[in-house]
Amino acid sequence: MGNGLSDQRSLFPSLLPFQSLHIVILGLDCAGKTTVLYRLRFNEFVNTVPTKGFNTEKIKVALGGSRTATFHFWDVGGQEKLRPLWRSYTRCADGLVFVVDSVDAERMEEARTELHKITRLSENHGVPVLVVANKQDLRNSLPLAEIEETLALGELGAATPWHLQPACAIIGEGLDEGLQRLHDMIMKRRKALRQQRQRRKR
Ligand code: G3D
Ligand code: MG
């Protein structure tokens, strides 16, 4: 038996526009996921410890002008043994935030594998992805073009809208901008799904 709201969301994702958006923050351990979450929540740097389960916060995000949207974030542990759990959080997700450590060249391919694995799941088909190239404050961070290529973002497929955002979670740079792009992609997808349903009814 499913949770009533989740069931409604999967059947009628465009009928609940005023609900908060269900966003799952994923990525390898140490990429900076929890730092992103707490930067957004408290507007300051919070020292983190490795996430064993998950952290969750509902946060109102400024979208520019007077517009705001409430995002319900789920920050899930990124250690290898915890990754099989990601799927249970992404079911019914409106959007994904995939955080990568821009300095961790050695594990960029591992990040690619995990990103493609999760976006290929049938239930995540078409779910927009904000890829956060985090730790841009560090001198040896990889250039954005190299991150895009190594993560093979071009191969995510036409169905998966994505945006690559350089960021520094410690000071919060790039996060609002990235979330605005994610919000735009989610709204665009909802509109397309709504139009598809209307066409089917005719
Ligand atoms: P995770 O939740 O993805 O596992 P955390 O990652 O948020 O716990 O962060 C892992 C480490 O990266 C933390 O350092 C954190 O301070 C650091 N970090 C996160 N974002 C940035 C950033 O933008 N720039 C820099 N330089 N470091 C960042 P520690 O030392 O606690 O392991
Ligand atoms: Mg964490």
Apparent shape: globular
- Distinct helical segment count: 6
Please, what is the oligomeric state? single chain
How confident overall, as mean pLDDT?
Answer: 90
Query: What fraction of residues sit in β-strands?
Result: 15-25%
Bound molecules: guanosine-3'-monophosphate-5'-diphosphate, magnesium ion
For the CA atoms, what is the radius of gyration? 16 Å
Structural class: alpha/beta
Query: What is the CATH architecture term?
Result: 3-Layer(aba) Sandwich
Q: List the uncertain runs.
A: 1-15
CATH topology: Rossmann fold
In short:
The chain has 202 residues and is of the alpha/beta class.
Could you explain how this protein is built, in words?
The protein is an alpha/beta fold and 202 residues long. The protein has a single domain (2-201), classed as Rossmann fold (3-Layer(aba) Sandwich), CATH 3.40.50. Helices cover 35% and strands 22% of the residues. It is built from six helices and six strands. The protein has helices at 4-11, 33-42, 86-90, 108-120, 144-150, 175-201, and strands spanning 21-26, 54-64, 67-76, 95-101, 129-134, 162-166. It has a six-stranded mixed β-sheet with strand order 2-3-1-4-5-6, sandwiched between helices. Strand 2 and strand 3 (67-76) form a beta hairpin. The radius of gyration is 16 Å and the shape is globular. Residues 1-15 have low confidence and may be disordered. Residues 27, 29-35, 47-48, 50-51, 78, 99, 134-135, 137-138, 168-170 line the site of guanosine-3'-monophosphate-5'-diphosphate.
